[in-house]
Amino acid sequence: MKGNNVTGKLELRWLPVVDRRGRKHMEARWVEVSAPASTRHAA
User: Fold this and answer.
1) E strands of 1-43, at which residues?
2) 1-39: pLDDT as tens digits
3) What is the distance in angstroms between the CA of the first residue and the CA of the last residue of the chain?
């Protein structure tokens, strides 16, 4: 996939979606989340 710039990490999440008929259902979507902060601790 050329042209995709992902700076964080991807997570698969279930999100509520309403279709054109007004029916609500859940869909799995890939969402970009920011990378977690460093876990290093000062000694």
Assistant:
1) 9-18, 24-33
2) 556 666 779 999 999 999 999 999 999 999 998 866 666
3) 42
Q: Beta partners for 28?
A: 14
pTM for this entry:
0.48
Q: Is 8 in contact with 34 (CB distance < 8 Å)? A: yes
Query: In whole angstroms, how far apart are CA 5 and each of 23, 25, 40, 43?
Result: 33, 29, 27, 35
CA distance 43 to 35: 23
